[in-house]
Amino acid sequence: IVNQISLCRTSYGPYARAMERICREESFHQRQGFEIMETLVRGSKEQKKMAQGALDRWWWPTLMMFGPHDAQSSHSQQSMKWKIKRQSNDELRQQFVDQTVAQAAHIGLEIPDRDLKWNEGRRHYDFGPIDWDEFERVLSGFGQCNESRLRARQDAHDEGAWVREAV
């Protein structure tokens, strides 16, 4: 939602208007996700462990979803110049980290980053380096769940073929 909200102010009007409608819908899902995590944390030990495990699993991939660092992004400067994007990948990622650290602390979860610390001079959290090699592996089809995802897709395709043949 952090990424999407910034696109509500893009220079291309039809896209900006569509993003406003999308953000209204997605904001609901963001609140729902927070409430689910909060409920898990307040549940049993196993449920809190599940919530922490989800945060541990998704923290770094989520930071990767903002895109490469500005210095390595091939399109960010042009998109900023044309005002398609109003904030850079790094600015959006920083905004997300600052918001999420406070939310996690509020419900009693720990961000899985040993380098995470408040930087008083910058008035932002500093965080550890992102493993862009992992990002490239996932994009190349070698992510943690890729094999099981592809197997499920193949199984669904095979079942669909059987149904088509029966009709």
How would you describe this protein?
The chain is mostly helical. The chain has helices spanning 2-6, 13-41, 45-64, 76-81, 89-107, 132-139, 146-166, and strands spanning 117-119, 124-126. A two-stranded antiparallel sheet has the order 1-2. β1 and β2 form a beta hairpin. The longest helix has 29 residues, at 13-41. The radius of gyration is 19 Å and the shape is globular. The protein starts with a helix and ends with a helix.
Largest sheet: 2 strands, antiparallel
Radius of gyration: 19 Å
Number of strands: 2
Q: List the strand order in the largest sheet.
A: 1-2
What is the N-to-C order of secondary-structure elements (H for helix, E for strand)?
Answer: HHHHHEEHH
| Number of contiguous helices | 7
Write down the overall mean pLDDT: 89
**Uncertain ranges:** none
Q: Roughly what percent helix?
A: 55-70%
Query: How does the overall form come out from the CA principal axes?
Result: globular
Portion in beta strands: under 5%
Structural class, judged by helices and strands? mainly alpha
Distance between the termini: 43 Å
